[in-house]
Write a structure and sequence with these properties.
Blueprint: E1 2-4, E2 7-9, H1 18-23, E3 34-38, H2 53-59, H3 61-65, H4 67-72, E4 79-86, E5 92-94, H5 98-110, E6 130-134, E7 138-144, H6 147-154, H7 160-171, H8 175-186, H9 194-210, H10 216-228, H11 234-237, E8 241-246, E9 251-254, E10 260-272, E11 278-281, H12 289-295, E12 304-306, E13 309-312, E14 315-318, E15 326-333, E16 343-345, E17 351-364, E18 367-372, E19 376-379, E20 386-398
Antiparallel strand pairs: 1-19, 2-3, 3-4, 4-10, 5-11, 6-9, 6-10, 7-8, 7-10, 9-12, 13-14, 14-15, 15-20, 16-20, 17-18, 17-19, 17-20
Helix pairs in contact: 6-7, 7-8, 9-10
Amino acid sequence: MLDLGGHRQSYAWGSRTAIPAFLGAEADGAPWAEHWFGAHPLAPATVPGGGTLEQLIAEDPAGMLGEDVARAFEGRLPYLMKVIAAERPLSLQVHPTKEHAAESFAAETAAGLPLESPLRTYRDSNHKPEMLVALTRFTALCGFRTPRRAAAILDGLGTELTDRLHGLLVTHPTAHGMRAAFRTLVSASMRPTPEAVDEVVAACRARAEAGTSPSPRIDRFVTLLAAHHRGDPGVVAALLLNPVTLQPGEAMFVPAGALHAYIHGVGIEIMAASDNVLRAGLTPKKVDADEVLQCVSVTAAPPLRVAPERQNPTSVAYYAPVDDFELAVTELTDPALPHAPPRPVPGSGPRIVLGLEGETVLSTAAGTHRLRAGQAVFVPAAEGPLQAHGDGRFAQASVP
């Protein structure tokens, strides 16, 4: 087992306290949005001796990943694990399919755009399906409502913009109508003015205060988004989307093409090893509406909640419908003493284990390791089955 040093990402929307507290680190006043544990080339985890997990895997892909995983994923760790702490809303975004990402990454590379170029949209050639397991109450927007339900949300707001969107969805109550409504908001040639967006926000606020809203939660979300991104058309797009609230331990899967925005909370994210994000709004970063419209799915779908499945008396697993990753959480209540009986931890192959609470002792054929909250280790496939004892809780990322 190898100790992992995570990679900090200090985006403006991050919490200044949540991740430092989780890691047992001192807060420095700067936002700490994400902490990455993985082998993505943009921010690979460090290992003892000064190297990175990416380098170790490249030196021995079969031993680190197992021959089957190394063969299936071309010698690369297929997942990336993160702790995420959203104090402010994230961008309205979508992730591409694997085919579209590979094609677009190749085109930008052939054009000579450096990976760090602000003109570049694709940082790698991979897709980025992701799953979030909430550690605190977590709010988000994810996926389009049905056209008729979205029309009911828009009805009665009485602004020129919402009347136009309402008319589109009533006349065309299909995915085509929803695409037209969304295009109206984000396309460079049609996007509404900041004044038009402000009118919609005022109407949502007034409706919420009057107690006449068909969805009080979405009116609150619109008001919150506007407080951080005044005049941004993405604020109005929220009226077309499903609001989501996850309680601790609940999970949501976001497939390629699903329009979404995380709003507030702390969670564990696991995703395919990619950093491809296509932004439609609610951000000072690059917005690429044309690329978003190419990749987004406007088919009405509720948020894909993932129910934990009991694996054994101490572990539950969150299975996503992808080949790249799965996540399990193990909770033990035995004293972390040498004489405590070890318990089997389901899973195999290359695993990243992240301590969530308390203290546990992990063991494989290669030895033992004491794991505390906020610490992470990589378990190479060659070390075989994992066992644990102690009084704590940890998350394990692995390959299905």
